[in-house]
Design a protein that fits this description.
Rossmann fold, six-stranded mixed sheet
């Protein structure tokens, strides 16, 4: 059977296999790589409902990857060996809804689920090809630490992580900067996450530099990130469908970069019976405005208590636009050009005037986020981190008995202990791992908000790979 091929949303990059797609990261034409087709798995759901998380991961990934089954199973086993919960991503009933706990990995965030796999997969490819890789990443908080823990100490990989100086939670920053391995470089950039992401994409578009220094991506522009996240929609969705004896489920997803909810979109397109994906943003509401009003237009980044979502330009949105444009890559290129030149984008509408019947959207502002954290603690003795609380606040009104709500818990509350203190009046959000990094030595370098400064930093710290 021929393995899945990957193409660019902008249609000007030759098709490639999975391994090349992962190493490439951002397509050379500036687009995002997507699978040439979306498998229909509806006839496999009954069987998948009997499998462990690792077994479902294998069944899904083997549809998309060009790896021998034995090697893939080994990578999956090794990637999830460090998770603290045997179910990896358990769905826990809390009140009327299910909380999908995605924070049992080594850095206590949902990004671990994809990045533990991606780090091992990078190593696998590089060893087989006798190559080296320099990862360049931008983070609003959790991606940086999860990526660092996925590749720290790996002989063939260096990682450069840009974060917006002073705009990530203090413990999130320390999770990154207390990792002192020689192959880890933390860069504090004077600017926003969108600035960091813009620098990253600009350097990937500098094809001679990208090739000379072997740049790779771990942000969700890398298809492997989205692919690994599809799994927990199936694992939790099938569990709730069976335990509650219903025919559909709904997911509430806090999102800033559109990667996590895009994985849910793919799961629904593959055949998981999803009534609705509920997109929840904080005050940085470009995505919620898009699906509520059909307006995808830039605003100013507002610092909030859910900093991982303090984003305006959602890097994964282009993948969704490809499907909204019915695969017309020329139309995608025009839409992206319009957005880059004007800061505004016209979204194709459905016949009824809406953007997409699969999506609902809303905003969980600071007041409602703190109130939701307080209410769940007082009524259920359960702590929500502020990002998860955004999703719960927006998603709760959609819950119904015939289509239960699964709310994605994207981080452990201890990562945002100040928000928990503000919400419940008690400093009770703690975790031994985070306590250990509070006073550990750190290392980071401040870098100007400038693409040339970051380019020169890479040149100064690692040799070319060619």
């Amino acid at each position: 059977m021929q393995s899945m091929q990957y193409m660019s949303t902008r249609g000007q990059t030759p098709a490639m296999g999975f391994q090349d797609a992962v190493i490439t990261g951002l397509a050379p034409d500036g687009g995002l790589l997507i699978p040439e087709s979306i498998p229909d798995v509806r006839n496999q759901l009954d069987h998948w409902a009997t499998l462990s998380y690792q077994e479902i991961t294998f069944e899904i990934l083997r549809l998309f990857v060009d790896l021998p089954d034995d090697d893939l199973q080994t990578l999956i086993r090794d990637s999830y060996a460090s998770f603290a919960h045997p179910e990896i991503a358990p769905a826990v009933p809390v009140g009327d809804i299910e909380i999908l706990e995605l924070f049992h990995g080594p850095t206590l965030a949902f990004k671990d689920i994809a990045l533990q796999f991606l780090g091992n997969f990078f190593e696998y490819i590089l060893e087989h090809r006798d190559q080296r890789l320099n990862i360049l990443a931008a983070t609003s908080g959790d991606t940086g630490s999860a990526a660092i823990y996925g590749v720290r100490g790996k002989e063939r990989i260096n990682i450069f992580v840009m974060h917006p100086k002073g705009r990530v939670a203090p413990l999130q920053e320390r999770q990154m900067t207390t990792v002192l391995d020689d192959n880890v470089f933390n860069l504090a950039v004077e600017g926003t996450f969108d600035d960091c992401q813009g620098i990253m994409k600009g350097l990937f578009r500098d094809l001679p530099f990208k090739e000379k220094y072997g740049l790779g991506a771990v942000n969700s522009v890398n298809w492997a990130r989205v692919l690994a996240q599809i799994v927990y929609y199936f694992s939790s969705g099938l569990y709730v469908l069976n335990t509650r004896q219903v025919s559909e489920v709904q997911f509430a997803v806090p999102t800033g970069n559109f990667g996590d909810i895009l994985a849910g979109y793919y799961a629904a397109k593959m055949g998981l019976p999803v009534r609705r994906l509920i997109l929840a943003t904080n005050e940085n509401d470009i995505l919620s405005r898009c699906f509520s009003k059909g307006e995808y237009s830039l605003g100013d980044v507002v610092p909030t208590i859910s900093p991982s979502m303090d984003i305006q330009v959602a890097s994964n949105f282009e993948r969704y636009l490809y499907y909204k444009a019915n695969g017309d890559t020329a139309r995608v290129r025009q839409m992206i050009h319009d957005f880059e030149s004007s800061g505004r984008l016209e979204i194709p509408r459905e016949a009824d005037g809406g953007v997409d019947p699969l999506f609902a959207a809303g905003v969980g502002d600071t007041e409602s986020t703190l109130a939701t954290i307080r209410r769940y603690y007082e009524q259920h003795n359960y702590l929500l981190d502020p990002h998860t609380a955004v999703g719960v606040a927006v998603g709760e009104p959609y819950h119904c008995a015939e289509a239960p709500l699964i709310a994605l818990a994207t981080a452990h509350p201890a990562k945002f202990n100040q928000a928990i203190l503000d919400a419940v009046g008690k400093d009770i959000a703690r975790h031994p791992y985070l306590e250990a990094v509070r006073d550990a030595p750190t290392r980071q370098d401040e870098v100007a908000n400038d693409i040339d400064a970051v380019r020169q930093y890479v040149i100064d710290h690692v040799p070319p790979v060619g």
